[in-house]
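User: two proteins, same treatment. go.

Assistant:
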Amino acid sequence: MAFAGSNNALAWAHFRLRGGWRRSLTIAAVVVLVLGALAIATVRFDPNSNQALWGWTVGLLGLQAACLVFYIPGRIGTTIKADVQSKMIESHRLMPTPPAHAVAGYILGAATQPLVFGGGVFFVGALVSSAAGIELPRWAFANAVLLVFAMFTWVLSAYTALGGRIGGGIMGAMIMIPWFTHGFVFALLPGMTVVLSPVIGQSVFDFRTGITPGNMALPAVYAFAFAAQFYFATLCFIGAARAYRSPVEISFDTILGLCFLLGWVAISFAALRAWDDFRPRGWNPGKVDTNVQVLASLIAALLFAIGPVAANARQRVSWRRHVETNDPYPARRPLPIAIVIVIATLAILAIPFAPKDWARPATDVLLRSGAIVTIALIGLYFFFEWAYAITRSAVAAGTIWIVFTWAVPIAMDLADYSMRGLRDPIVRFSTASPAGALMVLWTRRDADTGNINFGVGVQILFALIPMCLWLIHFRRRRNGSRL
């Protein structure tokens, strides 16, 4: 079975169910005629025709973005979820189809017809943009940026529909939050700008700059963005293939989780290093200090580090059960958690070295930050291992625990600040939270060392609670009793 093309049974079947080439080409032809006629009519009745053509060019690119970035991912997700709910996917799993080919079939089968429609829009836009005085390479470049970003969202949508529980939330937040915050999230988390390539610099919707016939070289920022999108899409594609192969298999295991974390660190490092090049200029979000950007990137990286830690705990519980039952099926021992935490901590601590015109972080601040990250990840590992030992899913319990140990101390400080009118809202109770302690360390030069040490001590106590629960369960299981 082929990875793509008419020999991919899933792709061809879904494409044929939607009318095949006849319907696709008919829709594209109608689109070309209607849009072309409307553009010609607008020019004939508008005395300022050049401005109208510019407006048509931007509008056609917006239509292209709506089709590629919003419609096709929704169609892919709907197609896969329909097969999952109807149990048709169980029949597909019985076919001699490699999981990677099946995932590619779902994507291509749902995307081919809208892509033909997009080809018609591209043709009309090329004619309109040329009439408006915009070079064809500039129009083609804008469409290429949209297409590459759209392909990334297609893979993420497939992964979400096949069982990625947080994939849909990540994709929705990645696309919608920047618009709701008027671009402030880009200034706060520069790494997001690297993945959202259509908004880099003047954005692809600004046709005053970009690729010209005399300069056909791909800008370095877009080359890095394309590489980042390909990297994350590859991880999500592997996860989707695993979820297709087995609904009970861990789609994002320890290795993929670490790779995802390292990818976030890499794009954050690049964006902080060359922020003037990546900075979107279509919004005016205001200025964010470099230390705040570093802090936000650190906290985001710490949140991403929860993924490989939780996956490692689940894999270790599964591996122990495999050994205890003497299952003859081969099973690989998971990566030691000490190695996972060391890699995650070192990667997170590399972020503060990214900005060029910024003082080198103090050794004391780095050491304390490393201790905070390590304590948080150790406590979460024991919590997830204990939770997976007694239940199938630990998502809800883990979320409650993180809110209790991370958000509640900060909320207590905010409540104290609102009632007493203190000078700084994040100073006392917040140090008991990993995120709050990092805020104090990286945003206050006169941070109280004793207060931070006390907060770290409280974090150690929080980490000891799941460690004790895990130890009690482990001893009872070893003695043959149940918790």
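Protein 2:
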Amino acid sequence: MSESPIDLTAEAFAAAAQLREWLLAGPAQLRNGVETGGVAGTLNSAGQADYVYGEITGYYLHWLAGSQLPADPRRGENARAALAWCERHYGSGAPVPTRIALTPMPADWRNDTEFCFDLAMLVGGLSAAAQAELIEPPRALLDALMRKLNQFAAADRLLPVAAASAAGLPDRWSTRSGPFLVKAAARILSAAAWVTLPAPLESACRGHLRAFAPRVVDATADPLHPTLYFLEGTLALAPEHADSAREVLQRLLVLTDANGSLPESLDTPQVRRSDIIAQALRVGLLLESPLASAATRLDALAAALIARVGADGSICFQPGSERTQINVWCAMFAQQALDWYALRASAASAPDPKEIV
């Protein structure tokens, strides 16, 4: 790294501010049409949304609620628009496609089922936005989502998809009941401030945490993205596991390359996703001392993210790939990561793991 810690901090502040403005005023949240208020997953090179995504709308609500964001009336306006979109789609309890296409797209097997993780991120976002007083507590909507989520409750853990729709789905990390669902458990349990959780669902959430403690998880058995989800959920739900979570993270950070990026998995080392870099930086900042030496891999991760932020404040899923894919959840993860990184050099309080998007 040629930058001094002070220079990199200033760059992180600037990049975080660019990302924040793009997320608040740019094309990430739809401003008109039938899907007004919903939040896109990805956008094409012209800045047009490919699809609206319930999971990402949940992330957006959670991001808007972050205590590190400056006061801005747009946070409440955007949160209320997202809530209205959620109520239109999820209030009745009817099945909702995972990805609601806005442009012609090929058939996607993910629309053949609903995912526990996606619904849990909606619950977490709504709960966080209500806690931050950006919206009124949407108790009726949360109750409807809890009834949906109860179908994912097994005796001792969460299921990724409902048993009735599991047949015929491909065998992926997202269709297996793995450690990543600890993050879903944390988001579901956060709603207890507003609604009563179904007893089987609450029991499954707590059982999932017991089944997947960091000391029993192989850091590289799954791709890095879901493993980092697991660490995020663990820190939010069980901070007493921080020491063993740090050991898992350290096994991932040794995979950082000279440019500060991380592989998608051991099987696909050529794929270097922006969301994974941001996730690792956030978890690292939660686990590292604020007084740690600047000569750490966290600086390399921060520099890699800064370099990926475009002039308009957007960020690509994977720069240099065949198709430019502007990515909304990467923008939220990166904005939060760089904000936390920049604040690390100040006397500000440490970030709250419950706020992690």
